[in-house]
Design a protein that fits this description.
Layout lengths: L3 H6 L1 H10 L6 H31 L8 H33 L20 E6 L12 H8 L2 E2 L1 H7 L5 E2 L2 H19 L3 E4 L3 E2 L1 H7 L10 E3 L4 E3 L4 H6 L5 E3 L5 E10 L18 E11 L3 H21 L4 E5 L11 E9 L4 E10 L3 H6 L2 E3 L5 E3 L1 E10 L1 H9 L7 E2 L13 E2 L2
Parallel strand pairs: 4-9, 8-14
Antiparallel strand pairs: 1-11, 2-3, 5-7, 6-7, 9-10, 10-16, 11-12, 12-13, 13-16, 14-15, 17-18
Helix pairs in contact: 3-4
Amino acid sequence: MLDIKFIRDNSELVKKAIELKNSSVSVDEILKIDAALLGKKREQQDLQEKRNSHSKKIPKASAEERPALIEEGRRIGKELDDLKPAVAKLEEDLRDLLLRVPNPPAEDAPIGKDENDNVEIEKGGDLPKFSFEPKDHVELLELNGWAEFEKIANVCGSRSYSLRNDMVLLEMATHRLALEKLKAKGFTLVSSPSLARENALIGTGHFPEGRDQVYHLPEDDLYLSGTAEVQLNSLHGGDILKEDQLPILYAGYSPCFRREAGSYGRDVRGLIRVHQFMKVEQYVLCKNDPKESAKWHQALLETSLEIVKELELPYRVVECCTGDMGTGKVKMFDVECWVPSEEKYRETHSCSSLYDWQARRTNTRYRDGQGQVKFVHTLNNTAIATPRILVSLLENHQNEDGSVNIPMALRPFMGGLEKIKG
């Protein structure tokens, strides 16, 4: 969320951000409602001052004057009461629009409409060279009895999966690797519930625009979140932290759920795009300083790259263009890992800096060394998300007999196994 004063003073900049991020919210409509609200609030203030002044006359009035003064006071009070619904409606309309206003992207962010305009900035690892016809991840899973798709879909619906035997352990091993790394870097490990209230999803910016992507439990008025970012972002909502408490580093481990609405027919095979998955999310709250945000943005990205390198996966890093970075992002990088069967890189990590856009929604603040209260900056990035990373892991490390080599970094979490085969 942007400060309404910022929008008033920088309306052309905000309009440009709306254009760059393919949004449809109207700055002119926001300013119109804002002006109407300010007008109504001035009326309220004038009437309140009039009532206060009037009430001082009553004790000094004669018995003959008092009834008329009391009646006049009631009339002023009624005018004030009559204004309340109009003010409340304007405040609600304004907040609804403000929640949809995108954050202006960084000046050096690539300009573009969608993922096709993202810019590659780094590439690492060697693409595998097979002396045999490699299998895709579904073939490897089925050959080794490491997953079940058809029967579980009959029970749980489409885009469900059930990992088996060594694949369950391999999935857990990737999360242990990520959690151990983040703990060593000073992150607080958090086991995060998947359930969240509506305000938490508004706080991250997933609502109001992304409601069609989230599972709703109407009887409990709760939602299944698609990332631990939702819960971690609201943990300090309403707080005024001390500056020396920052940065706060969280590593949120949780089951995640996404409806994947609008993606019918895309990536329906295997583990690429599923409704339920596990994720370790890096989340940072830091001081309200662009340089501090940039430092942590780079640190989060480097941690993800360390994990990818330890998994011995070919990868590339792209900087997301304005049309692909999302409403609240100032700057965003994706890490993509190579999928041999598709001969392309697929996103496995998403690293975002949002400045104070989320903190304004949750009212998360801190008091700086000069005693000034400011909104914190927030950042997030995937540490590991399964099962998608397993697609690259299986395909890049496969052998001709269908066995899969275990990267050195995962072997301590796999009982020392160098490779697995069903």
